[in-house]
Each structure stands twice: as structure tokens, then as C-alpha cells.
Specification:
Layout lengths: L2 H10 L5 H13 L8 H11 L5 H14 L11 H14 L22 E3 L2 E9 L9 H4 L10 E7 L6 E7 L4 E7 H6 L3 E3 L10 E6 L16 H10 L1
Helix pairs in contact: 2-3
Length: 238
């Protein structure tokens, strides 16, 4: 259930008169609510106050919505570093107990250019969130589900294939998290890879724009069986 479906779900649960519902919807429409006192809070409070919705019905809708959108809290992480490092790297690290944080002790040439180390394989973790590219709302409002028909854009940037052996890309949807495991050579040779992201880097750094109409081009790299360590080792051998 996406946010665009929530209002319909709430209105369908209303047991009062159509006149009361129309009046409340009009009241909410002209209200200048802001988060967290937004239109949904205003709508639900008025529907309960009118006697056409019970608290139990509200809790049922709330549980249903949260269960269908377990990743919404990730879209509330505002700082890029908080999302990319604290969430994505922690999430990936939790999927494989054999990961090490790289240090000069295990890699004498290490200078912070990659994130994780596994059996001598240098791994860089990148993450992005799927949001409605046509909306200017906050991330948690325009977050999209995996099966959305809306246009979206996920940008995996600051990619340096020469600095690692394998990339792990974490794509966060409001209801799913997709993981792609791809070798650095496959990234460098990928038709979506755009070199020279920043002026002066001599083509050593690039990015990939993943959109609703090209996401299928990463299907063969998606982790399906949960064996992240095995997928990394396979990618490193390709």
C-alpha cells in the first residue's frame, strides 16, 4: 500500500454518512497542515470525532500500512552519510559474519577507498532510495514500492571501479530492499556507467542512473538466495 492508496483505504472504512465524509474531506483539503500534523492526522481525528470510525478501525489501518511498508523509516534518514554508511553498510555487514572492516593490518595499501573486505576481496557498498521523481515532497512521502508504475531515479555515484573488486548496491523501496552484487569490471563495462562524474577526475570516477525503464538491466546481478558471501566470491571471479 503506497501513500496514494492510504486515503482511499481510510475513507472506505468510514461508516458515517456520505455528507459527513464530504464535509470532512473538504475541511482537510483547505487545511494547511504540516508534518507531523498533516492531512492524514487531521482526517483520521475528524472521522473518529464524527463517530464514523472507531479507534480500533484506525489501529487496524495503521498496522496494515506499517506492515506493507516496513522500510519507510529508512526514507526518514536525512543525512547522506547516515544513510550510506550507518544504514547501508551496517545492513550489509549483518548479512555476512565473515566481513571485515578494512585496515592497514589486513591490507597494507588501504587508504579508505573501499568499505568491506572478504577473503582478500575489496568491496565497496553503495545505496540509494526509490522515490517518485515527479514529486517535490519529502523522501518519506514520495517513497515508492518495488512494483510501482511511477517514474523513479536512483543514482549510484562516486563509483571508482579501479579501487575495489566488487560493488554491492543496495536499492531501498518502501516495501523491499534489493541487493545487486557486481564486479568492478562489470561496472566499468556496463552501458549505463557514465565516467567523469566530477570535473578534474580524469574519468576515474563515474555513476549509474537507475530508472524505472532500465532497472531490468541489473536483473542478473540481483541477490536472490540470501548467500551474500557466495555472490561476492562469484562476482570477484567473473
Amino acid at each position: 500500500m503506497e501513500l496514494s492508496d492510504l486515503k482511499n483505504r481510510i475513507c472506505e472504512s468510514f461508516n458515517g454518512s456520505t455528507e459527513d465524509l464530504a464535509r470532512i474531506l473538504e475541511m482537510v483539503e483547505v487545511d494547511q497542515g504540516v508534518f507531523p500534523f498533516n492531512e492524514y492526522e487531521h482526517l483520521i481525528c475528524n472521522l473518529i470525532a464524527s463517530g464514523g470510525m472507531t479507534y480500533e478501525q484506525y489501529m487496524e489501518i495503521r498496522f496494515e500500512y506499517i506492515s506493507a511498508n516496513p522500510n519507510l523509516w529508512i526514507f526518514e534518514i536525512s543525512a547522506p552519510r547516515g544513510f550510506g554508511e550507518k544504514f547501508a553498510q551496517t545492513y550489509i555487514h549483518g548479512m555476512c559474519s565473515q566481513f571485515y572492516k578494512p585496515t592497514k593490518k589486513i591490507d597494507t595499501g588501504f587508504s579508505g577507498e573501499y568499505d568491506l573486505w572478504l577473503d582478500g576481496i575489496k568491496i565497496e557498498v553503495k545505496a540509494s532510495r526509490a522515490v517518485d521523481s515527479g514529486s517535490s515532497e519529502p523522501l518519506y512521502v514520495k517513497a515508492l514500492s518495488r512494483n510501482t508504475n511511477k517514474p523513479f531515479l536512483m543514482n549510484f555515484q562516486q563509483l571508482k571501479p579501479q579501487c575495489c573488486d566488487v560493488f554491492i548496491w543496495v536499492a531501498v523501496f518502501r516495501d523491499q530492499i534489493a541487493i545487486w552484487v557486481i564486479s568492478s569490471k562489470e561496472v566499468a563495462d556496463h552501458p549505463l556507467f557514465s565516467r567523469g562524474q566530477h570535473r578534474g577526475n580524469k574519468g576515474n570516477e563515474g555513476q549509474l542512473h537507475i530508472k524505472h525503464d532500465n532497472i531490468h538491466m541489473l536483473n542478473k546481478f540481483e541477490l536472490k538466495n540470501g548467500d551474500l558471501g557466495g555472490a561476492i566470491r562469484s562476482a570477484a571471479q567473473r
